Amino acid sequence: MNNDFGFHINRPFYIRSRMPMKRIIECIGANNVTLKRWRKNVRAQQWYFDNISKTIKNNYWKSHSLDIQSNGGSTNIRCTTTNSRWWQLFRYQDAFIVNERGKVIDVSGNRDEENRNIEVHNKDGKLNQQWDIVYADEWKGEPTKGEMNEDFGLVVERDFYVVTEMSSKRYLDLINNRNMVLKTPNGRRTQVWYFHQQSLTIRTRYNNQSWDI
Q1: What is the pLDDT of residue 55?
Q2: In angstroms, rounded to a whole number, what is the distance separating the alpha carbons of residues 26 and 23?
Q3: Would you say 69 and 58 are in contact if contact means Cβ atoms under 8 Å apart?
Q4: What structural domains and CATH numbers belong to the chain?
Q5: For residues 45 and 100, what is the distance between their CA atoms, to the nearest angstrom?
Q6: Residue 19's pLDDT is what?
Q7: Which of 6, 89, 162, 177 has the fewest CB atoms found within 10 Å of its own CB?
Q8: pLDDT average per 10 residues of sequence, the chain (213 residues)
Q9: How far apart are alpha carbons 85 and 53 in whole angstroms?
Q10: pTM (2 decimals)?
């Protein structure tokens, strides 16, 4: 462990957002850095702290480090050739990845979306600036069919009913392919729901659409 920077040395890790989808930072094409869902055995999604250069290096593009574009003159984060200047030096402190000049790594626009750009901004404490460092040798991956998603409290792909605690004990049902109502149990697929891991949503077995406000 390098206590000054907050990382274990040369130990691959994922940089996982604390936003609801728990996406992670990936280096795309040895340059762009975006938010992506985890994919098994993709080393471009793994990083490690190099104690010689004091930079966060990519585990696939090993000559490349996290970098603020234009020698620190931009808000854009990229992955590029290591030069150990201030715009490549980051610390992990209390869930924030902080640059030498006090800027923190941030998900652009506070949008929890696939391929969302990674930037640096002044610290505001919101979830789009908070990260977990999860070392690859401790990474459990995402739950698969039949396993519990601990964050959402639901078993992946396991059918269930939603039953009111009111005296009627009616079931949540789907009508007109869209509207959700309470109805007596009727054995139809419109009353059967399941948790979809890829989208992290509750879906109906009737037409696979997700709950939506």
Answers
A1: 97
A2: 9
A3: no
A4: 13-138 (2.80.10.50), 148-204 (no CATH)
A5: 23
A6: 95
A7: 177
A8: 91 96 94 93 96 96 96 95 95 95 95 96 96 94 91 95 96 94 96 94 96 92
A9: 9
A10: 0.82
- The answer to whether 159 touches 206, Cβ cutoff 8 Å, is no
Rounded-to-integer distance, Cα 110 and Cα 205, Å: 32
Which residues in 77-115 are b (16+ Cβ under 10 Å) and which e? bbbbebeeeebbbbbbeeebbbbeeebbbbbbeeebeee
Relative to beta strand 148-149, strand 131-135 is: unpaired
State both tokens at 204. Answer: 């109906």
Residue 131's pLDDT is 98
pLDDT score, position 151: 86
What's the 3-state SS for the chain? Answer: CECCCCECECCCEEEEECCCCCCEEEEECCCEEEEECCCCCCHHHCEEEECCCCEEEECCCCCEEEEECCCCCCCEEEEEECCCCHHHCEEEECCEEEECCCCEEEEHHHCCCCCEEEEEECCCCCHHHCEEEEEHHHCCCCCCCCCEECCCCEEECCCECCECCCCCCCEEEEECCCEEEEECCCCCHHHCEEEECCCCEEEECCCCCECCC
